[in-house]
Design goal:
With 545 residues, the chain is α/β, with parallel strands linked by helices. The protein is 37% helix and 15% strand. The chain has helices spanning 16-29, 83-86, 99-116, 167-179, 189-196, 211-221, 260-264, 270-283, 288-309, 317-326, 336-348, 355-365, 367-374, 381-398, 403-415, 465-472, 527-540, and strands spanning 7-12, 36-41, 120-124, 130-134, 137-141, 147-151, 153-156, 182-185, 203-207, 227-229, 232-234, 242-246, 427-430, 435-438, 443-446, 448-451, 492-494, 500-506. The protein has a six-stranded mixed β-sheet with strand order 3-2-1-7-18-17, with helices on one face. It has a four-stranded parallel β-sheet with strand order 8-16-9-12, with helices on both faces. Helix 12 (355-365) crosses helix 14 (381-398).
Length: 545
């Protein structure tokens, strides 16, 4: 029960990012944490893990980061320690953990926070759909005439709320409702696996060819009882008859280097990293043309050195980079199966890495440095659009899947269960039974469509009532067209006039533009949470009882 001197805080949405924020708050507050009461509004039954890392998620869904690179820093004095040390059965450094195992770890961190963090915590499964400010602080609405509060501070860590469907998806939803054709979402994967038990022998189209598509393919094959033996797929007989992934550009992402030794070839030197740190700190507050030059100079220094050491074409690096700035993520071409096989060969070291592959791997190594330089800065909107677009474009190389998952897709292609003949923006027509996908030389009739496209955090497309209400009130504004919320360095919202909205903060993907590279699990436990925690304490100066 909150006492007279208690500072009341609300966190709306409590997955890994909310957990990271409260761990930072407890650590920064020390003994004063006893004067802080936090209500956690999270509809799922897995606070700390959230739906994306649900411990009950399908076991075939993997992280896209190997154990050797997972460095989710535990709070000072943590009893559960680092993820690698916590697991019941240790994984090899080059293995890719299951998503649900990370969820179990995050649940353990949350339980430890409840027991030893000093904060008073209460979990509520209510869905918050409105927010108002009164004399006593912020009030949260959970349906008609149900209010919680008042709160001195409200932190929104919403993940990815519901969005308005694009024109294509809107047409498909209407089509599915009118015809009985099956349209499903990629997640939660356990639900997709359950539904897929009824799709034996059918053709399933998969919208998107990024990381989610790899999860979908595994759920529809391994999740239906199939298995891989000696590089070949052994079907169970209950899986769909054919899987047809597609995307606008038709190319799969490149896998990460297979081993620590192969990965180390792309390590920047300490001097190169220091140079990039200085460059991104200046670039984040510079005009776009200056920002581009600063980042390019620092990036080229590392990439050209790596290419020279690996006998690559360093002479083309500057031209490649110039083209990437002009049109991020657009430089690959050719058949999808060729790109898949080339990615596997570059990841296992049997093929010299391409210029783009080297750029992506070096950029991946600098993600923490990128965030440290960019996120605290006040970035001009045009510069934010430039740098965020560049980072998003390089995700094809830097955020890739395990090479094992790429080998599985290649084996499924060889077995005839996956086709990559229609990946590149096929013509799609609606039929009585579902969808027809066609290109110049190929055609497929799908009775099931799985949407594996992660929506953009563009505020104008969000339709979660809480977000739309804040936008109407002028308290929540996009940083620039196509980007997400405009927030200060400590996460506090900036209203339509650019003024801070005191005590109302946003962390995570829905602040993309104000922050960068926010999709990483590591970002949930980074300095953005620390800045928010310090701001809360500075504004409220809680006193120990």
């Amino acid at each position: 029960m909150a006492g007279e001197n208690t500072v009341k805080i609300a966190v709306v949405g409590f997955g890994p990012r909310g957990l990271g924020a409260l761990e930072a708050l407890a650590e920064q507050a020390g003994a004063a944490a006893r004067a802080l009461h936090v209500d956690l509004f999270e509809p799922s039954s897995t606070p700390g893990a959230g739906p994306n890392f649900d411990p009950g998620e399908n076991p075939v869904c993997q992280l896209n980061t190997p154990m050797r690179d997972i460095d989710i820093r535990p709070p000072r004095g943590s009893r559960c320690g680092a993820f690698a040390d916590w697991q019941d059965a240790g994984l090899a450094p080059d293995a890719f953990p299951r998503r649900r195992d990370l969820g179990r770890y995050l649940e353990t961190r949350y339980a430890e926070l409840r027991r030893h963090g000093g904060l008073s915590l209460r979990h509520d499964t209510a869905v918050i759909d409105g927010l108002e400010h009164g004399d006593g602080g912020w009030m949260l609405r959970a349906g008609p005439d149900i209010w919680h509060g008042p709160y001195a501070e409200v932190l929104l860590t919403l993940g990815q709320p519901e969005v308005s469907p694009d024109e294509q998806l809107d047409d498909w939803q209407t089509h599915a409702a009118n015809t009985g054709a099956v349209l499903r979402q990629a997640y939660p994967a356990w639900k997709l696996q359950r539904d897929a038990a009824r799709w034996t022998g059918q053709t399933v189209a998969i919208r998107g060819l990024a990381l989610s598509a790899f999860d979908v393919i595994r759920v529809l094959t391994l999740g239906q009882g199939g298995r891989f033996e000696n590089g070949r797929y052994v079907p169970s007989g209950t899986e769909p008859g054919l899987l047809v992934p597609f995307s606008l550009d038709g190319l799969p992402p490149f896998p990460k280097p297979e081993t620590a030794a192969l990965d180390a070839r792309f390590d920047p030197t300490e001097a190169e990293t220091q140079g990039f740190a200085a460059a991104i700190s200046s670039a984040a507050e510079a005009p776009p043309d200056v920002a581009r030059r600063l980042v390019s100079d620092a990036l080229l220094a590392a990439v050209c050195r790596v290419l020279d050491q690996l006998d690559g074409a360093s002479g083309d690096a500057a031209n490649w980079l110039a083209r990437e700035w002009q049109n991020p993520g657009s430089q690959e071409s050719g058949p999808a199966i060729s790109a898949l096989q080339a990615g596997i060969s570059m990841a296992d070291g049997s093929l010299a890495p391409s210029t783009g592959f080297v750029f992506g791997q070096v950029w991946r190594k600098w993600q923490d440095t990128l965030r440290r330089g960019y996120n605290p800065a006040t970035t001009p909107p045009e510069t934010a659009s430039l740098l965020v677009g560049f980072d998003e474009g390089l995700k094809r190389y830097s955020y890739g899947p395990p090479v094992s998952a790429c080998r599985e897709v290649a084996a499924l292609v060889a077995a005839g269960l996956v086709t990559l003949d229609l990946t590149a923006d096929p013509d799609i027509t609606l039929t009585g039974a579902g969808w027809t996908l066609a290109s110049e030389d190929h055609r497929a009739e799908a009775t099931v469509m799985v949407d594996g496209v992660l929506p953009s955090p563009d505020l104008s497309k969000l339709r979660a009532p809480l977000v739309t209400a804040l936008t109407r009130q002028g308290r929540l504004c996009a940083m620039a067209e196509g980007l997400a919320a405009n927030v200060a360095a400590d996460g506090q919202m900036l209203d339509r006039h650019g003024a801070i909205v005191p005590g109302l903060a946003f962390l995570g993907r829905l602040a993309l533009g104000s922050v960068i590279a926010a999709d990483s699990i590591h970002d949930c436990f980074g300095q953005a949470s620390v800045r928010w925690a310090r701001g809360v304490l500075a504004r409220n100066t809680p006193r120990p009882k």
